[in-house]
Specification:
The complex is a heterodimer. Chain A is an alpha+beta fold. Helices cover 32% and strands 26% of the residues of chain A. Chain A has 4 domains: 11-54; 57-163, Immunoglobulin-like; 198-232, no CATH class; 234-427, Rossmann fold. Chain A has helices spanning 15-34, 38-54, 215-221, 230-233, 250-273, 296-308, 320-328, 350-355, 368-371, 379-398, 416-427; strands at 3-4, 11-13, 64-70, 76-85, 93-98, 104-114, 118-127, 133-136, 138-143, 149-152, 157-158, 160-163, 198-203, 225-229, 237-242, 278-283, 287-293, 335-338, 360-365, 406-409. In chain A, helix 5 (250-273) packs antiparallel against helix 6 (296-308). Chain B has 2 domains: 10-107; 114-161. Chain B contains 7 helices and 2 strands. In chain B, strands 1-2 form a two-stranded antiparallel sheet. Classes of the chains: A alpha+beta, B mainly alpha. At the A-B interface, helix 1, helix 2, strand 5 and strand 6 of A face helix 3, helix 4, helix 5, helix 6 and helix 7 of B.
């Protein structure tokens, strides 16, 4: 939370004031035209009310400080806060104006609990995107009891931070996890490739550079032995994000794509931290890719590509994807397909990529948790419906196992399932 | 933007609706329309405003006054220039403001707190009506001018009741100290202050 400079308040008329003034002016005009004083007596109240209410602003209310926080978790944002000030016997109302970010759905409107010196408020939101970083601002206003004018109050206006970071894939089992903390005196190389950490010895290849040869070991063994570095151990990795619309509808597709983007961000960061060469590709109507590379700048490039990826208007021909993959990446490069697979065979990428020689792991964000509780069922039927839907989805995903591991991602808080699947695949030399 | 989904304990705007509905019906009955058509217009207008206020979301709540205001405006424009109609028209104006204050979306006690500005308006309207009704030889314009004068007097009284200095606006200037001040730190030594 950080403070922002409070804005000075000026009295601001509301739409209702202009309606009343317009009505009063019309009645005055009608009285003049018809030479009948009766409309004036009604119009007088309309014309005078805004000015009478403006003078009820309490002088003691010079400052109102806002304090608020988000104590929700997951998809729920629970905004709780209080406005403190010398409200006294103000004839108006103190209210908090919050502009919720576009990623939230207001599930419970803001409610107030008012005391002479404190106004507590609460509101609940539901995130449409599970992983966001947003700053939310609020204004505290005093408004008169007739709703004719309002005044923005001065005071502390901290910014509310709503942070739901994506899960990071800490358990990249097929990558040898290095020590997190360097040993005393150890200076780790920032470059990938042969300047990586020494890992062990291996038989030298035919055209092995002389600098890689471990001459002492060669002398002992009697055969050319080369140094092996960690960087050489790490395989390349390609992330393929599916942007095609599915039969679930654009709204659900957009939610699932957001989940997929969060998963990609969660995978990219630890991979690049481990100096892995990483590629990123998207397939909507057309294929687009960021080639394999590593390093911080590449990380920015990939993250930017992930963030700017949007749901395609329509899906392209499936064969475009493997052809594009062949253009950008070497066959044999492990590929993680992030796709909300719905069982539609025309949307299936895994067989085509496998045929092109790319070992695939499919990470499929499940739409089921997003639909929970939306059917208006009671607890028993909801539980039954959830089980049936889980079974149905497992059947749909089952045939994809023919081409590689499939992760039904329904716990959005973690990518542990993917890590476990990669670990098993690495042991079986699938990936 | 969100707003209080408020307390039904505040009365739900029933009292304000009753007051405005009654005033609109009486105004319709003393008006010039035959067959209680004026009362019907008033009831329909007030009913439409109440219904609109019940279902309207926050951005549209400002517009909930329009049906009732239109209905009452029709009634007062068609009313004959008789003292009874003038009296009821003024009362309807006050009732209309009370109906606005008695908003079911507002907080508890909003209607009671709203009586303060309504009372200010009522003084002005009442002064105008008093001049017109108590002194029938004066034309209505004099009554209206008297009402505005009363309002000006009330506002001046409110102004005079407020402090002349507004510290938040920075209009108050403190006098400089007569002698340099000295401060003592925790160790007991003294040093001139920075100001």
């Amino acid at each position: 939370m950080s403070d922002v400079t409070p804005r000075h308040g000026v009295h601001r008329w509301t739409t209702r004031t202009y309606l009343l003034l317009g009505g009063g002016a019309f009645l005055l005009l009608a009285a003049i035209v018809s030479r009948n004083p009766v409309p004036v007596f009604f119009g007088l109240a309309l014309l005078l009310a805004p000015f009478a209410t403006a003078w009820t602003f309490p002088r003691s209310l010079e400052r109102a400080d806002l304090a608020w926080e988000d104590d929700g978790s997951g998809l729920m944002v629970r905004v709780r806060g209080a406005v403190t000030g010398n409200f006294g016997n103000s004839s108006g109302e103190i209210s908090v104006r919050i502009a919720p970010p576009r990623e939230v759905i207001v599930t419970q409107e803001i409610s107030y609990d008012r005391d002479p010196r404190e106004v507590r408020f609460a509101t609940d939101w539901r995130l449409s995107e599970p992983y966001i970083f947003r700053r939310v601002w609020a204004d505290v206003t005093w408004s008169d009891c007739l709703g004719l004018g309002e005044r923005m109050l001065e005071g502390d206006r901290p910014v509310l931070a709503i942070e739901r970071p994506p899960p990071e894939l800490h358990a990249l089992a097929f990558i040898r996890s290095p020590r997190k903390t360097p040993l005393p005196g150890e200076v780790r190389s920032r470059r990938a490739a042969r300047s990586g950490e020494f890992d062990g010895l291996r038989w030298a290849e035919e055209n092995e550079p002389a600098r890689s040869i471990n001459w002492q070991a060669t002398a002992r063994v009697g055969r050319m032995v080369a140094n092996q570095y960690e960087a050489e151990e790490r395989p390349d990795l390609v992330l393929l994000l599916d942007l095609r619309p599915s039969s679930l509808g654009r709204f659900t597709d957009a939610l699932l794509l957001n989940l997929g983007r969060a998963a990609c961000l969660g995978i990219v960061r630890p991979c690049l931290r481990l100096k892995l060469r990483l590629g990123f590709a998207t397939f909507g109507e057309y294929f687009d890719a960021v080639p394999l590379s590593t390093g911080r700048i590449h990380g920015f490039r990939v993250e930017q590509a992930i963030r700017t990826s949007r749901l395609a208007e329509r899906g392209g021909i499936v064969q475009r994807c493997p052809i594009g993959m062949r253009r950008f990446f070497r066959p044999g490069t492990p590929t993680i397909i992030v796709s909300a697979w719905t069982g539609d065979a025309t949307l299936d990428l895994a067989p085509h990529l496998r045929r092109m020689g790319f070992p695939v792991v499919t990470l499929s964000p499940s739409p089921l948790p997003l639909r929970e509780g939306l059917g208006g069922l009671d607890a028993t039927r909801e539980s039954l419906a959830r089980r049936v839907e889980h079974l149905q989805r497992r059947v749909r995903l089952a045939h994809l196992w023919e081409y590689g591991p499939v992760i039904d991602w329904d716990n959005y808080e973690t990518l542990e399932g993917l890590g476990r699947a990669l670990h098993v695949a690495a042991r079986r030399k699938v990936v | 933007m969100t707003e209080a989904a408020s307390d039904a304990a505040g009365g739900g705007g029933l009292l304000g609706t009753l007051v405005l509905g009654l005033a609109a019906v009486v105004l319709g009955l003393v008006g010039g329309l035959p067959f209680a058509l004026g009362a019907l217009i008033g009831v329909v207008g007030v009913g439409a405003s109440v219904a609109f206020r019940t279902v309207a979301s926050r951005p549209w709540r400002a517009w909930t006054v329009v049906p009732a205001m239109l209905a009452v405006s029709v009634e007062v424009v068609l009313a004959p220039a008789v003292p009874a109609a003038e009296l009821v028209a003024g009362a309807t104006g006050i009732a209309f403001l009370f109906w606005m204050a008695d908003d079911p979306h507002g907080s508890r006690g909003r209607a009671e707190r709203g009586l303060i500005p309504i009372a200010v308006v009522a003084v002005a309207v009442g002064f105008s009506l008093g001049i017109v009704l108590a002194l029938p030889r004066f034309p209505s314009e004099v009554g209206i001018a008297g009402g505005l004068l009363a309002l000006a007097m009330v506002l001046v009284a409110i102004l005079l009741a407020r402090s002349r200095f507004d510290a938040a606006r920075g209009t108050r200037v403190d006098a400089p100290p007569l002698a340099p001040t000295r401060s003592t730190d925790e160790m007991g030594s003294t040093a001139p202050s920075e100001d």
